[in-house]
Amino acid sequence: MAEQTPQSDRATGGAAETARLNDWLREHLTAPGNNRVVMTSGIADLIGDVSLFRNFRKRAELLRAVRDFDDFDDAIDPYGEHDLGRFRFGGTDCYWKIDYYNHDLSAGSEDPADPFKTTRVLTIMRVDER
Predict the structure, then answer these.
(1) pLDDT > 90 fraction of the chain, expressed in percent and rounded
(2) pTM of the model
(3) Which Pfam families match (predicted)?
């Protein structure tokens, strides 16, 4: 995952616009546009087999937990960008994290508040996979 860059070092888009775009991605996890949503193998193990609609309820529960997360505080969201959340799923502590890349995913974005310069990658992982 990309290193988190302090807001003061970022381009002028602003934390409020970055947070708005991050919240939009979480609200549209199943249709993220040019952004990406991925999960680690540890999260996939918690869900189990999803072929032929098996365990689809677990997957839906996971996506709802990420979508509905709103427990942002200074400890988890010091820059006000809504780019990290911690939650429990299946009795396991988990994170979701949004990183900012250029459109070909070869480097970090120069301005995370500009959707024309940024592809967001939301990763869902277990805390012990950090």
Answers:
(1) 82
(2) 0.86
(3) DUF3768
